[in-house]
Write a structure and sequence with these properties.
By secondary structure, the chain is an alpha/beta fold. It has helices at 2-8, 22-31, 52-55, 69-75, 118-126, 180-187, and strands at residues 40-44, 61-66, 85-88, 101-107, 129-140, 160-164, 170-174, 191-198, 202-209. It contains six helices and nine strands. The mean pLDDT is 96.
């Protein structure tokens, strides 16, 4: 996965140029900042910083973590990201600071987490957050005829996509599509006020850490 996103870094933002998705994107871009106003935010898998540019101007601070140097190099060139801080790191081994975060954001990351590691990731994330912190995840809905087709699931139920890059290489990428019930069940032991919202091509899921 790390190697794939490093290789894809320069062409990643093409996904945000799809004409049919523009209406959804404008709505989400307007909606997202209000979730983080005045908060000390930890962003997981920040990638090229596309979503950071809507969070950083309103947040008290943003620490953006990603496994790829190549994507973070692009993220830092966006003018609205000037106040953000950047860290190359592992989403399964998050840094825990003395001052815990007020909120967390994971855009287009949770769908790449294997089913067997979803609870591990969320519990690790919660350790970086204050009680009462808001967690927001944003990801893709599977839309027949628009989304990249899925391959057969593996023994654990994970699904995959075969993705091609501009250099002609093909990559088998884990891509799961959790539903509202799956997400609510996962966070029920430690979260409250769980809210699942959908647009035509995307979903968001929020909860408040107890």
């Amino acid at each position: 996965m790390k190697e794939y996103y490093a290789a894809r870094a320069k062409e990643y933002d093409q996904i945000y140029a799809k004409p049919e998705r523009q209406s959804d994107l404008r709505l989400i871009e307007q909606w997202l900042p209000s979730r983080f106003e005045g908060a000390r935010v930890l962003e997981i898998a920040a990638g090229t910083g596309y979503w950071t540019q809507f969070i950083a101007p309103v947040a008290a601070s943003v620490l953006c973590l990603d496994a790829s140097v190549e994507t973070l190099d692009i993220a830092q060139t966006r003018p609205n990201n000037a106040r953000a801080q950047w860290l190359v790191g592992d989403a399964y081994a998050l840094p825990v600071s003395l001052e815990l975060y007020d909120a967390a954001f994971a855009g287009f990351w949770f769908s790449h987490v294997p089913l067997a590691r979803q609870q591990e990731f969320l519990l690790g994330l919660n350790k970086t957050l204050k009680s009462g912190a808001r967690v927001v995840m944003l990801d893709n809905l599977y839309v027949e005829g628009n989304s990249t087709p899925l391959t057969e699931p593996d023994a654990e139920g994970n699904t995959y996509q075969i993705r091609k890059l501009a250099d002609g290489t093909s990559h088998r990428v884990l891509k799961n599509y959790p539903n509202e019930f799956d997400l609510c069940e996962l966070v029920d032991p430690f979260g409250e006020q769980a809210t699942y919202t959908t647009w035509q091509y995307y979903w968001t899921f929020e909860y408040i850490l107890r």
